[in-house]
Structure of Beta-xylanase:
Amino acid sequence: MRRWIRRLLVVAGVLFVFVLLGALASHRDNLEGPSAKPLPGPTLRASGKANDILIGTAVDDGALRNEPGYRTDLAAQFSVITPENAMKWDALEPERGKLQWAAADRAVDFASDRRIAVRGHTLVWHSQVPAWIADGKLPAAELRQVMLDHISRTMRRYKGRVKTWDVVNEVIGDDGKLRPSVWSDALGSTFIFDAFAAARKADPDARLAINEIGGESIGPKSDTLLRVVKRLKARGLVDEVGFQSHFNLDGDPAGVPDTMKANMERFAAAGVDVAITEFDVSLKEPASDDQLAQQAGVYAELATTCRAVPRCRSITVWGFTDRHSWIPESSPGYGSATLLDDELKPKPAFLAFSRALRAGG
Ligand code: XIL
């Protein structure tokens, strides 16, 4: 081979190795995420503590595993976590009898090691149900038994380590009627009461919650929810009502609904605690400075609303960084819904939320 061809091959080879190394490094950076930036002011958990409010976030298992910066902020800022997907039934038992605890254990271990509380989410839901249940082929009696076994097995595993459980999730439709689901279709509304009874039995020390989406304002859905809660409460089966609080700026409602405080108060009057369980404020992309400022206002207003209701015990955000938020996937065209940006830098919402949590406290 001619010398110049050999040289050319060597140079090309060296270049190739460099490009490969560069690609690997950037892939790793991407996987490991940005490092944690210093966040202004006291931590959210400290600000919440001043008023006896736990501050929580949903936790993404991939980020928990791979991103040190994410873990740093998580450990520093929050007093409670909710595994975002790891405790859902399709994650725990994708095939009947084959249990996959690793991701759920990881979240609980992370929290226990740092004296962070865990909200278990969620035992019975119409969504993220494994196919062997969702296909609707199990006879009603068997379906009921499968549900009861799932509740007791899951709760017993985390006894003493998961303090509060979302026993049922989103069981009421927007029309105020029971939401159609694999559970209600086969078992009627009794599945709700059976689920709570099984949960109470499985871990008598756990706090039991009913969690709902779009029930923040006074209306048909929250009216039904209140009736269900009163019936559960009469049997000593419920301790808390979770209001998910997925808000935006242009929908109905834009921001915190006017009746949210009064709504939470009527649940508190029924003898249960209330909690904000999945708070986020999605913006139309690309988000303008004006929208970010409005979003900050909504974050502050919800903190103020919770503080104004003595039985409002916790505010959990559904992800704390735009890197890991369900919004872009679930609502295409929307995003920027959380407190920190993709690089873990604080957005106006972070400052406003943090201030509102401790103002005057
Ligand atoms: C969402 C998760 O954030 C997504 O990652 C997943 O793909 C779908 O579920 N109400 C709930 C949460 O109770 O469990 C949902 O979480 C968001 C709406």
